Amino acid sequence: MGQTATHPPLPRSSTRGHEARHLLALPADVVVDEVEVLALSRFTATRWEVVPRDLPGADVPLGRMAGPDEPGVLRLSRHSTLSGPYAPTGQGFDPGLPAGTAIVFDVVCPRERWSDAPPPEGGDKDGIARSFPAGLPNREEDRVITWLVAVARRLGASVRFDVGGMWDATPAAAGGPAAPVGAGVVLTPDPGAAVDLTLYSDVWLDPQACHRVIQGVHPRAVLATEGAPYQGPPKGIAEMPLYPGEKLDPQLRRELHARADDFDIAALQEPQILDGFGVVIDLGHDGWLTVEVAGEDFVPQLLRELPWVRGGCVAYRVHWDPPDLPEANREFPQHSHLVARKRSAELVARVARALWDAAGGELGDESDFLVDPDDL
């Protein structure tokens, strides 16, 4: 579904004093309904209140179509909205967006921040701390920010965070208290930083079958279901008191231990019910790849109404463990990590595709956005 040739420019202000404003800057190859689908993937209340003219066929039982030069309004939640698309220019100001930006969405949500500045050190691979140096978002704003980062990563886009109050023509342009002037940091998440994939299916592959599927992709795949053989209780335990001074009759103690042994033996002879297992691949200098298989009750938002999901399904989580975890949590990691991540991501995609070929179902990424297997 293509976009129209022209869009209205960004307004100077769209916030009040208790609100925050963020800009989602999208490249030319992104269409409006992709943003809608990603919103539906995260927010249950998503709906168009004003449908942009780019979506003339949209189903809007509660909304209306936008008029000429009017942006659409997509409600994310009770307190948060996304308006657009706009042109990447402002009404008499420069919005400071990256080159290559084709359309912009104006995101307004509650301004909710922690009172303390984020710590100078620590994992911040998304760049959130430098985008909010005075205090990290929490509650509703945190949910919106996390989603915007995931959207930008998925679509090869950028976000300019915390631009409320930067271009207001008057101290209270939107009415009421003036919006605090934000930091306005531009963040372009690295699409390659999201590696893990999960297959949701109604098919349970037994450990040996799953192992064969993964071994067809990588010969060093190992089934990780075997533990240490049971050796029984320590020798002489039946002759030892339970605690110093314990005066249990020795014969009774031996009988109690014998009954406990009989119970353990009977339990070990029962058929084993396996409710989860794993397959691991040692990648050497690149770390480890793990496939964790288990029942799953919590699935991505867009799958929850599917008949085969309602009673629970099977999740095949294909996860990469990097060799250096602190390095993996840097916004700009070293080249050696990027090389290992690229090789591992390619293997994760091949394993996930092989599992999908064997078990069917739906694939999701780290942000619970659905992935087309043909795109892997």
Walkthrough of the structure:
- This protein has 376 residues and is an alpha+beta fold.
- The protein folds into three domains: 19-189, no CATH class; 197-225 and 274-375; 237-269.
- Helices cover 23% and strands 20% of the residues.
- It has seven helices and 15 strands.
- The protein has helices at residues 32-40, 128-131, 139-155, 207-215, 250-269, 325-328, 335-359; strands at 19-26, 47-51, 64-65, 72-75, 81-86, 103-110, 158-160, 186-187, 197-201, 222-223, 276-282, 288-296, 313-321, 362-365, 370-371.
- It has an eight-stranded mixed β-sheet, covered by helices on one side. Strands 10-11-12-13-9-14-15 form a seven-stranded antiparallel β-sheet.
Short description:
The chain has 376 residues and is of the alpha+beta class. It has helices at residues 32-40, 128-131, 139-155, 207-215, 250-269, 325-328, 335-359, and strands at 19-26, 47-51, 64-65, 72-75, 81-86, 103-110, 158-160, 186-187, 197-201, 222-223, 276-282, 288-296, 313-321, 362-365, 370-371. It contains 7 helices and 15 strands.
